Amino acid sequence: MGGLDMNNGRRDFLKSVLGIGAGLLLPKIAKPNTANNLHEELGLKKITILHTNDTHSQIEPLPKNHYRYPGQGGYSRRAYLINQIKRDNDKVFIFDSGDLYQGTPYFNIYKGKLEIEYLNKMYYTAITIGNHEFDLGLNVLGENLLQANFDIISSNYVFTNDPILSKIVKPYKIYNIDKLKIGVFGLGIEPTGLIDKNLWGKTIYKDPMETAAKMALLLKKEYKCNLVICLSHLGYKGSEGRIGDIEIAKSSRNIDIILGGHS
Predict the structure, then answer these.
(1) What is the mean pLDDT of residues 191-203?
(2) Fewer Cβ within 10 Å of end Cβ, the chain: N or C?
(3) What pLDDT shows up at residue 227?
(4) Which pLDDT score is estimated for 238?
(5) Closest CA to 128 of 143, 141, 118, 109
(6) Which of the pair, 22 or 148, is modelled with greater confidence?
(7) Beta bridge mates, 51
(8) Local structure of residue 187 (DSSP, 8 states)
(9) How many CB atoms lie within 10 A of CB 109?
(10) CB–CB of 78/109 below 8 Å?
(11) Distance in angstroms (rounded) separating the CA atoms of residues 260 and 96
(12) What sign does the dihedral 14-20-23-26 (CA atoms) show?
């Protein structure tokens, strides 16, 4: 049997992936259709909320032989869907609940830059931070997020000790549209056992239950938001002493929508 040239194989693989990554084109986002709709005739206000989570660097569709979602997913298909929705809706918010990173060779090669670039092209509104966003450390995370054209929202990860993240990560954000005030805050999962301390650095972690109560009360009562949205990377149901989305939902009357991740 002939020997396998691992160096040549690796070079061919990298050329293939780099070529695909550089040439992947996203469809142009369409301008919204402003035609009158039923809700306008009834005097109601309509907004559209789109949400992704835990996409884990899945730039291309999943393999056709995938055990659960054969041939599904990928950034181009997502952009196409967003494009179609924006054709018929002029007030569209697009959120992500964390873990953009890790899972395919695209992350290993591009170090998270590609994910941010494509979210910019899809006109995301805001994201919160998942545990895998720390996989290359705070310096890389900060450098990547500096390129974001969307908001980065995290209420219980406090980056006071980081010169970049302390300036760009917000505890909450209020969006004003069509005389509506929409308040958004974000929650990240407890890092112990999930994030290496060396990658976490001097980031401060705050209890998500207490943080959610404070943020929701602030947005709903003080700032009079019509809608309060929580971007959560806690997981649907808490386990091993961790708080989950169900526990957050039960704890506050001031949160209208939880867009979850880590599930």
Answers:
(1) 94
(2) N
(3) 97
(4) 81
(5) 141
(6) 148
(7) 95
(8) E
(9) 15
(10) no
(11) 9
(12) negative
Per-residue pLDDT band for 37 (boundaries 50, 70, 90) equals low
Burial class (CB in 10 A: 0-12, 13-18, 19+), 257: middle
Integer Cα distance of 213 and 198 in angstroms: 30
- Return all residues near 44 (Cβ < 8 A) that are at least 6 apart: none
- Indicate the Cα dihedral angle 183, 95, 159, 206, nearest 10°: 70
Report the pLDDT averaged over residues 13-31: 48
Amino acid at site 19: G
CATH top-level class of 47-260: alpha beta
Q: Residue 27: which pLDDT band, with cuts at 50, 70 and 90?
A: low
List pLDDT tens digits, range 205-256.
Answer: 999 999 999 999 999 999 999 999 999 999 998 877 789 999 999 998 999 9
Rounded Cα distance between 154 and 171, Å, is 5
Cβ neighbors of 14 (< 8 A, separation 6 or more) are 109
CA–CA separation, 142 and 155 (whole Å): 17
d(C-alpha 170, C-alpha 183), whole Å: 12
Domain boundaries, the chain: 47-260
Q: Which has the closest alpha carbon to 222: 159, 172, 166?
A: 172
Q: In angstroms, rounded to a whole number, what is the distance separating the alpha carbons of residues 116 and 54?
A: 14
Nearest to 93 by CA among 101, 82, 103, 104: 82
The three-class DSSP label of residue 137 is helix
User: Which of 160, 156, 162 is closest to 212 using CA atoms?
Assistant: 156
